[in-house]
Amino acid sequence: MAFYDSIRLEKGMYNSGRSLTAVLEELDPSEHYKGTPLEGLDAFQRQLKRYDIRVGGSHSDSVQKFFETSNSAALFPEYVSRAVRQGIEGSDYLKDIIAAKTVIDGLDYRSVVSAPTDDEKSLKPVAEGAVLPQTNVRTSEHLVKLIKRGRMLVASYEAIKYQRLDLFTVTLRQIGAYIAREQLKDAVNVIINGDGNSNPATVVSLTTANSLSYADLINLWANVSPYELNTMLAPTDMMQKLLALTEMKDAQAGLTFQGTGKMITPMGANLLHIPSMVSGKIIGLDKNCALEMVQSGEVILDSDKLIDRQLERTSISCIAGFAKIFGDASKVLG
């Protein structure tokens, strides 16, 4: 069995290109703790237990607890990174619209693309001995555009060292929420305007400009076919028009919306409210094959600065971009 309390922690562990948790799991695998009181904790959480650092709850420790020893100080950047990731994941609509997430080590990435014709989408009977029809998959012409999003966290150690970690975590999660909102805007932009490979979404025109009817929604559903219309994105003005449709105001829909805040959605699609979207448009897509998220590494921190100088002007950022997989798996109604 590997013993978590014998590992020597140092800031050089952050230079591997992996998270500290991944490095610790390699040295101290969680599978070795099955059937013990430490089962259910990952390698980083065992290190928090080792140094008796409580990061949550009403009796959480203060920030200075991390800096009581040089070993425990090496845990602080990972705590910050995990809190920011929680914020990203907690307010993240991306999981509802991306088909795949690819994490890379560098900054250059070409996605793969397939643009089958309508004839190629139908699998016709093949006679004995005949050649099967082909689906061509190729790399995209242009690299995926990766964008760095983040915040500079400015605070003196003296100002926050007595703050409870539970409260400080709220601030870090909010930074993660800011990053998630900006990444969502980037994803929506790629869906509408394309990823640089001449693949903007096809526009399905409204029957009447600046208006919305149920027939328009049916037209959007028909245009997404043969893909499945399972996700719809709408800005505030279009959400209001959707809610005002007669078909969305029947008794069952009204009771569901008033009781839970969730509306019965058109065509059974998952309807997401995206306030940052350009007004007057609705995006319909098949989330299972429309969009790929490409991320360079994990949350990026100034680890050395966090360990040696605590929190004095520390950058927190994430580098990510988006690429279309099947360009016609998303349509814009507007």
Distance between the amino and carboxyl termini: 61 Å
Shape: globular
Give the class from helix and strand content and strand pairing: alpha/beta
Question: Widest sheet: strand order?
Answer: 5-11-8-6-7
Which range best describes the helical content: under 10%, 10-25%, 25-40%, 40-55%, 55-70% or over 70%? Answer: 25-40%
Report the portion of residues in β strands. Answer: 15-25%
Tally of individual helices = 11
Mean pLDDT, to the nearest integer, reads 87
Salient structural properties:
334 residues, alpha/beta, four-stranded mixed β-sheet
Would you mind describing this structure in some detail?
The protein is an alpha/beta fold. It has a domain at 4-91 and 149-189 and 302-317. Helices cover 32% and strands 17% of the residues. It has eleven helices and eleven strands. The protein has helices spanning 20-27, 43-50, 70-73, 76-90, 118-121, 157-160, 165-193, 214-224, 236-244, 251-260, 303-308; strands at residues 100-104, 112-113, 138-139, 147-153, 202-204, 231-234, 270-273, 282-285, 291-301, 314-324, 330-333. Strands 5-11-8-6-7 form a five-stranded mixed sheet. The longest helix has 29 residues, at 165-193. The termini are far apart.
